[in-house]
Amino acid sequence: MTTSRHLVGDPLDEIVELVCGVERHLAGDEVRQVVARTVRGPVTRRRVAQELRSNPRVLTTGQYPSVWSVGLLLAALRKAGAHEVSAPRCCGCGKELRTLFSRRGGYWGCHSCLHPPELCTACGRMQVSKRDRQGRPLCQKCPDEDGTETELVGLVARLEPPLTAEAVEQVLIHVAVRPVVRRRMARAVLERPGLLTGEGAEAPEPLVLRFIELLITAGATTVALPPCPRCGEERALTQKLDGTRVCQPCYQSTRSQPCSRCGTERPLTWRDDAGLLVCAHCRRRDPVVRERCSRCGKLRPIAHRSEADQLCQHCRPVRHGTCSLCGLHKTIEISQATGLPWCAACAGRWMRCSSCSTVAPVRAGTLARPVCARCHNPDPAFWRSCGRCGSGWQLTTAACQRCRLDLHLADLLAGSEEQIRPDLLTLRTALLGVERPDSALTWIRRPDVLAVITRLRDESGPIGHSILDALPPSAPSRTCAASWSPLAPCRTATSGCSHWSAWSARPSTRAPTPSNAESCTATRTGGCCNGSGNVSSPERTSPASSTGTSSRTSRRPWPS
Questions:
Q1: Which is it for the CA torsion 449, 453, 458, 459, positive or negative?
Q2: Deepest of 71, 155, 206, 475, by most Cβ within 10 A of its Cβ?
Q3: pTM, to two decimals
């Protein structure tokens, strides 16, 4: 696709050129200052430049429809002393506007035209600020206490006898601070009580799901969070599709289309100058989204902006200081969670939290007493959620480590096929269930691990003992073999699994980790898989093992 001269780099120059072509009373430097102060960010500037190219008459007429940022620019230019540039005009009465109000479709206007006055149904005043249960307008002074919150508390008390009315009222206050919002959520539940017992995916208000979650946290047992109606997984229902709330992966799958440049089927959220849909990968490579670095002069994505300059990733200022977590003098960044400096190693560090004993990313504290995100700030509104699975307690909306592991395993186990074979799903489930997905992601990228997984993927038949016996005697082979559960009953240790018996005669040069010590010991002692897929050892059996039941089961496989 060919790119115009103005699109390469910052479109600020093009906006200034288009405005100066109409306005003669303002100097170019004054126009640049107004545009830079009003239209901020490269995305907004590209949108304004494209609008002014396709609709240049808006500069002289001020007529709708147009993008909201163009109306703000027109108002700012008129305030700076422009004469030829028109002020934005109301879509209703046509008068010049100094303060803009807008609505969908690119229409802007005055408040009286876009928001017609209404009379309060109780006192007849015009300061309407809310509506009652029947949708009638009310002013701020007229109460709207129709008893919906009390009815909701009684409904929950009948469903959950152990919960007191005071506990339910506290949950309501945590759901929403404003009484108007609480009443709106209560009305939705009272109109359809089944939302609390599994039909929450049909909730008209997203706060209903938050209410259910807090009730479960308070000790409710009858109330249940709904699974995703499309995939059946128990995930956060953060999106709405065809009137039903679904999880983020299902929502993204419906938005997947072939990219107009690379042809890959992905969720597409960006259009180029020609109106074609482009994926995020191709967008990052597009020269349109790159700007000229103030220091090196190259067209690159900007990583640092200030009043004086904009710098790329290579030229951005680097800070050196003492990390608040490890105490070492390194290159640091300021943590969004604590506001304290931390290094890149600590920003990606996983440890067991000293408060809740959960293995999670470290977000506060020190290496001696690490603190996870949930314990550092228990307010979910402070944190971001994963853009794929919806899990919270993150600093960004990027895919979490477990989602990244899931995507990598899907590509690795599927290969050239579109779907993963059913016999390989066990390995995928075992690796996704590990305690630290970041370590599992690093482990499956090792060349020896890739060789084992690729060999298992390329097998034509189902995975069985004959295929596992043919694997080379290595740690990745043992880890993959220990994670298999849908195996047929194993033969005796003397006649079967000869591959592992030969390996067990070799001296051990590496101590097993606590998480995989049991499976390694069972394998070295000639253990084999029972019918349920658990690893049993002849030296570690109870009297119950004579009946064919193992007294110990191998733990979840851990990358070794």
A1: positive
A2: 71
A3: 0.49
